[in-house]
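Batch 3, record 17
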Amino acid sequence: MTGALDGRSVIVTGSGGGVGRGVALACASAGAHVVVGTRDEKGRAVVAEIDARGGRAAWARCDVTDQATIAAAVDLALERSGALHAIVHNATSNRSSEPHRLEDVDAALWEEHASVSLRGAYLCARAGFEALRASRGTLILMTSPAGMEGSHGLPLYGTVKGALRGFTKSLAREWAPLGMTVNVVSPLAMSPAMERAVEQDPAMEERLSRRVPMGTIGDPEADVGPVVAFLAAADAHYVTGQTLAVDGGHFMNL
Amino acid sequence: MLDGRAVLVTHTTTALGRHVAEALGGLGASVATAPARFVDRHAAEDAFAAAGGIDAVVHICVDDAGLVAQPLVETDPEAWDARGESLIRDAIFTLQAAHTRFVTAGAGRVVVVAPTSGFTGAGGFVPVSTAVEGVRALAKSAARQWGTAGITVNAVLVPPDLVAPSLVAATTFNAPPVVGRLPDMRFDVGAAIALLLSPTSGGITGATVIVDGGSVMAP
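Prediction for the assembled complex:
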């Protein structure tokens, strides 16, 4: 496979399914060597899929709440490719889509939300810094409209997603003199969490689609992945501190 | 402007918290203070109990621990928590205690106050910027959930100059205020907060008001 990511090396966290898997497949299609980082064994199937299509990938058991496992994924990328050009931190808590009332949440639920998505971003930045500095590489995070306009059903999810935008902008300023970039993508795509929600409420998909100007909920690989791959490519080296919505026009209020 | 209104101001150990408390007092409010961050919900509920009857809470989103410049990669997990995540938890506990208090009254006003540097970005201040933007999103979600209970939740952003010299040094890219001066703590910042605290401001919620003399003019 050849493309904008030829000779580049990318780590995608939480890439066993949903948006993360779509990003991993799209980056591989564009020519990258992809380290598929997952906490469980699901990442192996994604690597097999990339292999079968003639792409290059390796699996790393990566728990983003544990910096040592992120560092191991970085080492694997360096061992396979000699460099690391991008970390896409996509992993979120399995409980991130459980509705809750702010007045009822306890410290344990906050920890669940904060540890994977938010502290994981901090640990990815720390674990990846030296390798990304060497390549003048990029860190890509994931946000949501909930982080920009709040959320009626998921206040803690919205808090974490808003926090990630603050993280992105300040780190983008901090790393810019080193030639490194940091951006955040706001995707709308069918994920396992959204599929579960649609299963429970079959009308939801149509309701949500009607709110999307382009009329459909995105596909992780076809709609979201290529845009993340663009941000991971050398051509995007002058883009930093930005929030890029890839959502069919769903959120334009920025 | 605030005669007859009782307000709890948090983080009054910080210069920003102290100045906001003085400003609101100067505008006629009866002000109770909670000096330090809340480590759990009980601490917040206790502080609200000690404050007596209040109509509003002004939560300061920064504390002195968060205003130390350091590259993120040199920031250890303890400092990341102290300067970043703990400030989000503190805001969650404050909002929860505010809800407990205001939901029975069927009315309440919450304003979170933070520097514009969360919005603009500031090198060396990733943890506190993370916290500030997290709290701003939290305030919007609280506004969505509690709107029908008569509780409004808004944010007021102030320039780094009103927060800490270290933050000013990290935001030299900011344009100077177009009004030719920094905002006055009482008559600009205090007055904007007072508007959001007034009983007649029920139509404003989930909003961010930037009181920086027209420096940032964010979208």
